[in-house]
Design a protein that fits this description.
Blueprint lengths: L11 H9 L11 E2 L11 H9 L14 H15 L12 E4 L2 H12 L7 E6 L3 H9 L3 E6 L15 H6 E7 L11 H14 L2 E5 L16 H7 L8 E6 H4 L8 E5 L1 H14 L5 H11 L3 H21 L13 E5 L6 H12 L1 E2 L1 E2 L16 E5 L4 H18 L8
Parallel strand pairs: 1-10, 3-4, 3-5, 5-6, 6-7
Antiparallel strand pairs: 2-8, 7-8, 9-12, 11-12
Helix pairs in contact: 2-11, 3-11, 4-5, 4-10, 12-14, 13-14
C-alpha cells in the first residue's frame, strides 16, 4: 500500500461524529444540520431535463477533453463572467471539463508535483481537506498559511520565507474562501503572480464559491481575470477550478472545469486520459445548459442574500459574526468561555443543531490553530430552517453562558 495513505487525517465529519458520540440531543426539536456545505436549493429543472433528453448518448464513449460544445460554453461563460476579451481563451487549448472539482483538485497535485522531501504544497489554513490529502499522496509536504482576522481571513503570505517559497511547487488558493468567505483582491492576486514567476510554482485557484456573493455590482475577482488585466495573455502558471455544484445547486451532477495555462492543461489532459475520468455525455449536455444560463444563478444568490440578512439579525447581538464577502458560510467566533468543540457539542445536546468546529478544518501551527474558537455554519437549508437554527443558537448562548463577553 502507498505509505502516504497513513499520513491522511480523518475527515472533519468523522471528527464531528466522534465529538457527538454518546450525546442525546433534545427530543422536542427536529435536527438541523448547518455542518455540511451541500446546497439544498432546488436544482433547476432544465438541467434535469437535459440529462433525461440525452440518455441516448449512453451508447457512446465520451472524450476526456469533453465535447467542443461544452468547452465553447465554458469559454463563453468565463469571458462573460470575468470580462475576458474574446480570443484570449481558446476552447481547444485552455479548458478541460472535470467530474466535479473535488476530484480535479486532488488529481491536479498528482499530475504537477515532483515528489520530494523538501517539496512544499502551500494552502490556506483553515482549508478544504482535499488540498492536504492531494499534497501528501503526491509525495509533498503541506505548508499551511494561516488565515486570521488580522489578515482579513486571507492567507498570511508575509509569513513565508524566501527559502520556503523556493521549495513551493504548488499553491492552493481558495477565493472566495471556505470557511471564511474572504475574497482575494487585485493586489493580492498580482503579488501571487509575481511570486509564482520568481519562485517557479503553479497557482491552483479554487473559485467554486465565486457565484455566491451579495453585491451584484461587485462579483469576486478571478485569477484569470487579474492575469489578463496584467497583460499575461498566456495565463502562465495560472489554473482555476469552477463547479456547477454551488452555482447551479447541482452537486450530484459532478460537473466542473479547469482552465488556464495551456501547457499545464495539456499535461493534465494527458494525466486524465490515463486516469479514465471522462464526463458522461448526458452530463456534458446538462452542463452546457447550466453554463449558458444566468437567471437561475441570480435567483440563487437572492435566496442566500435573504437568509444571511435574516440570520445575522438574530445572531449578531449575541455572537461575534459578520457578513462574509461571499460563499454560503458564516464563520463565527465562539464565546470566550467555550471552545469550538464545547460549543458544538453543547449546541447539539441542548438544541439539536449541528455546526462544524473550526479546529476540525485547520491544523496546528507554530502560532496556534487559526480555526480554534470558531465554528462554521452552512446556510444551505431553506429560509425557515435557517431561521429556526439561528433562534436556537441564540437561545443556547443566552441560557447557557453565565456571562456574555462585552464584545457581544
Amino acid at each position: 500500500m502507498n505509505p502516504n495513505l497513513d499520513r491522511l487525517q480523518p475527515y472533519p465529519f468523522e471528527k464531528l461524529a466522534t465529538l457527538k458520540a454518546g450525546v442525546t440531543p433534545a427530543t422536542d426539536k427536529a435536527h438541523i444540520a448547518l455542518s455540511i456545505g451541500e446546497p439544498k436549493h432546488s436544482t433547476p429543472s432544465f438541467i434535469s431535463e437535459a440529462i433525461i433528453s440525452h440518455l441516448h448518448t449512453l451508447a457512446n464513449y465520451p472524450l476526456t477533453r469533453g465535447s467542443d460544445e461544452l468547452r465553447e460554453a465554458i469559454v463563453g461563460w468565463l469571458n462573460r463572467r470575468f470580462e475576458l476579451a474574446d480570443g484570449l481563451l481558446d476552447a481547444a487549448r485552455h479548458v478541460l471539463p472535470v467530474n466535479g472539482t473535488r476530484e480535479a483538485l486532488f488529481a491536479f497535485a498528482q499530475a504537477v508535483v515532483t515528489p520530494g522531501e523538501s517539496v512544499r504544497v502551500m494552502m490556506p489554513n483553515p482549508f478544504y481537506q482535499i488540498y492536504e490529502g492531494a499534497a501528501l499522496l503526491a509525495g509533498a509536504t503541506p505548508y499551511f498559511l494561516n488565515t486570521t482576522v488580522e489578515t482579513n481571513f486571507l492567507p498570511d503570505f508575509d509569513a513565508v520565507s524566501e527559502a520556503d517559497w523556493d521549495d513551493c511547487q504548488l499553491l492552493y488558493l481558495c477565493s472566495p474562501g471556505n470557511p471564511t468567505g474572504a475574497v482575494a483582491d487585485v493586489a493580492t492576486l498580482a503579488r501571487l503572480l509575481e511570486l509564482a514567476d520568481k519562485h517557479d510554482f503553479i497557482i491552483a485557484s479554487d473559485e467554486c464559491y465565486a457565484e455566491i456573493y451579495f453585491d451584484e455590482a461587485q462579483p469576486p475577482l478571478g485569477l484569470l481575470q487579474v492575469a489578463a488585466q496584467l497583460g499575461r495573455a498566456d495565463f502562465s502558471r495560472c489554473i482555476v477550478f469552477h463547479s456547477l455544484s454551488k452555482r447551479s445547486n447541482a452537486p450530484g451532477l459532478r460537473s466542473g472545469f479547469v482552465a488556464g495555462d495551456e501547457q499545464i492543461i495539456q499535461q493534465f489532459l494527458k494525466y486524465r486520459t490515463y486516469h479514465g475520468c471522462a464526463m458522461p455525455p448526458a452530463t456534458q449536455a446538462a452542463s452546457i445548459a447550466a453554463w449558458d444560463d444566468e437567471a437561475h444563478v441570480k435567483h440563487n444568490r437572492a435566496l442566500y442574500r435573504e437568509k444571511f440578512a435574516a440570520v445575522l439579525e438574530i445572531l449578531s447581538p449575541v455572537l461575534d459574526v459578520t457578513m462574509p464577502d461571499a460563499a454560503f458560510y458564516l464563520w463565527a467566533r465562539t464565546p470566550d468561555s467555550h471552545s469550538d468543540t464545547e460549543f458544538t457539542r453543547g449546541l447539539f445536546e441542548t438544541q439539536n443543531v449541528t455546526v462544524l468546529p473550526g479546529s476540525f478544518l485547520s491544523r496546528d501551527t507554530e502560532t496556534g490553530n487559526p480555526g480554534a474558537g470558531y465554528v462554521r455554519m452552512a446556510l444551505v437549508a431553506p429560509l425557515d430552517e435557517c431561521l429556526d437554527a439561528a433562534k436556537r443558537i441564540r437561545s443556547y448562548i443566552e441560557s447557557c453562558l453565565a456571562v456574555i463577553p462585552a464584545r457581544f
